[in-house]
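Lecture 7, part B: from sequences to assemblies.

Below are the input chains for today's worked example.
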Amino acid sequence: MPDTLAERFCGSSARARLDVAIAQLTAHFRDRVSTSSAHCEQHGRGEGQLRVYPPDAVVWPETTAEVSFIASVCAREKVPLIAFGAGTSLEGHVCAPYGGICVDLSRMNQILAVHAEDAECIVQCGVTREQLNVHLRDTGLYFPVDPGANATIGGMVATRASGTTTLHYGATAQNVRALEVVLANGNTIRCGTRAIKSSAGYDLVRIFVGSEGTLGIVTEVTLRLHPRLEATGCITCAFPSVREAVDAAIELVQSGMQLLRIEFLDEVQMRACNLYSNLELPEKPTLFIESTGSATSVGEQVERTKEIVLAHGALNPDSATTPEQRARLWRARHQAYYATRAMRPGWNCITSDVCVPISQLADAVSATRQDIDAAGLFAPILGHVGDGNFHVIFMYDPAVDAARQAIDALYDRMIARALAAGGTCTGEHGIGLGKRAKLVEESGEGAMTLMRQLKQAWDPDGILNPGKIFE
Amino acid sequence: MPDTLAERFCGSSARARLDVAIAQLTAHFRDRVSTSSAHCEQHGRGEGQLRVYPPDAVVWPETTAEVSFIASVCAREKVPLIAFGAGTSLEGHVCAPYGGICVDLSRMNQILAVHAEDAECIVQCGVTREQLNVHLRDTGLYFPVDPGANATIGGMVATRASGTTTLHYGATAQNVRALEVVLANGNTIRCGTRAIKSSAGYDLVRIFVGSEGTLGIVTEVTLRLHPRLEATGCITCAFPSVREAVDAAIELVQSGMQLLRIEFLDEVQMRACNLYSNLELPEKPTLFIESTGSATSVGEQVERTKEIVLAHGALNPDSATTPEQRARLWRARHQAYYATRAMRPGWNCITSDVCVPISQLADAVSATRQDIDAAGLFAPILGHVGDGNFHVIFMYDPAVDAARQAIDALYDRMIARALAAGGTCTGEHGIGLGKRAKLVEESGEGAMTLMRQLKQAWDPDGILNPGKIFE
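Predicted structure of the full complex, as structure tokens:
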């Protein structure tokens, strides 16, 4: 007997169960539950998704016990339960294709403890990255993982987020020590410890990191922090071609210098950034490189970096040494997305994401650029090239059907090339709704079976974020 | 109806199934199967365990397809299947308390590929750490994770091993990109990619890392390598007390210097090392500190390290700068275990392992030393203090029953203190047989349920390494 998610969650008996669940939640949470279409629509999509799939109700819990209560109600009534943080996800993680209850975790925004001696803090899931770093300002410590958006820590854990500083500090997975999680049955568990490492049993922490709300709802996170180092150095340099830029990046990684960031922007992206941020940088494939450490070691790294990029044909290695210059350049990098959007007002945008072994990166980026140009699309490329991770920001006019189709075909090829090169269909954005078929392609049926068995074991009724990761 | 592992695997029908399995394996592997008591005894224990639990047969496969064949036979006949690498495990992981088939993976020792540009290699599971580093000698790269023993890479993956360089390079988990694994049903899957990072689905790689052969047999490993850096600096320094040594270590970690190793040896361990390695170091709580990087940055780190340790009362910070001096000191550190054993010929030894937040380390080590002295035991303490991880080498005369009991009681207290301090019952040795009750204490019933459900989902007949991790 087929049991599709639609049959399970969208029939008339499902509707009746949903009504019971909403009534129970309303009795308990009163004005912290809403079924208004405004609230539901607002919670029906993340940033990277056009179509809205609204939940049937939104609840705003303030404690883990409240999340546990919500999960118990949903478990009893077999109703979908979708976690929502800052809504910055790019792959549709937070939408509700089968309706159900959205848990908006933004009020769980307490920083519970900072243990400076252990370079560690404990936060509720709804704390945002920027909020945390403002709070830590006087401790000399910070949480360096930087996906661009001001995501919640819970959301970053759920999508296994990374970003510009992963080269140096690792991604979210490497910076989580322990979690508190509410399970599909409403039980609350803790996993991990405050110790730096452990060999005690299965690594439950790393199972929940990246599970996209399909195995549990992360309510509390113990994070590893890092000391803010004394000095920072920054180099920008343009190259004659993508290949030379990427080859320079590879050699920088191989040098063992442990640079903080190596970011790549192609000529189209540079043009957008110049216009948006009022800069006059060369409109060529460009690396933004940042180092951190003691003043001496930063000085040495900047010199060595210059040597390496010059040997790869860098046109104008420029080390911006004042904090103001540095801030201006990095602001331009961080605003690349908005700069691109500003080039085509009213157009839609698809932010793609693949990651390949760095030896394959020049080929992957060059082939993608050729594809884009051949299709006549406007689509800058940028990436965390030290990690082999790059994004194309595909822009298209929503009035032109063919544009969207051309992008889909091109993105398919981009992913096929990444997989053929030994890479992954997503370096940091996750699977969500949009990449479920790609996950199967990447993982193979054997690995997919293990993932489905795990999901089935921990969430037998499939109520946690149904339709995500798995089709 | 109770279904204990003994009932499942040790009745007469189990014996009959075992005989069928051995016959099928013998028909296939001929002289690469042995049921001789010498071979079975040899494979019935690791290093840290006295009692021998022999398997009923040992098989030496040479390919993944052969491991898969063995697993299929064991799955069909519901016979225990125990993976064996170098046999260096300290927690009884490789023994066969319910009999069954031991898969000796030592002939799967091929280094399949080295991708220098991606700082990566692909090895069969039976390759040892030292074999790999000899092979990599001319590439400028190495695999830095160093648990002391010359373990196999498969064994290090299975126990989530770490060691002296984890401070700088992370533990095994952070240095594995992809795995090939033979499952309980004989199927072979691959997980992970050659990309540096991925957000594609559940992190199967990190589930297998540390699963101690209870979820699958790792047959192939894609490892991250690291460039050998230009220079190395080493400082040894004695302190008046444990607390001063550990406080210095904490400040070194907090400095953000990214030192390579910070090792602690207490006064008892130093005495043993002096005698064994013919050194004349002060017999006081001592730190061995190593830095790596460019010549300039190592010089700078050594100077800064000296300042920090002096501020914490270091008696004689001594920077051994010649490679010979360095090698001599580190040999002494690496031989600490043998030095300790040499102090009490004929005695037995229990190597303990806990890990705590570093802020709690001085208390944990001091309380342990007091306990040891109060019990009149001979037991040096050493540790990877940069990680908060320490070991007591408990020595005892096998003729004295009370000694073993005193050690058990003391080790129980040591673990209880580690858990109360927010730490773990094992930083790097794993659960195996000996720490199953401690895992429950550390994890709580909720997390244990998740682990048991995962085991049940992936190995429903419980044939993979039965009796390990779970009681």
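Note for the exam: Chain B touches chain A through 90 residues (CB under 8 Å). Keep this in mind when comparing with the next example.
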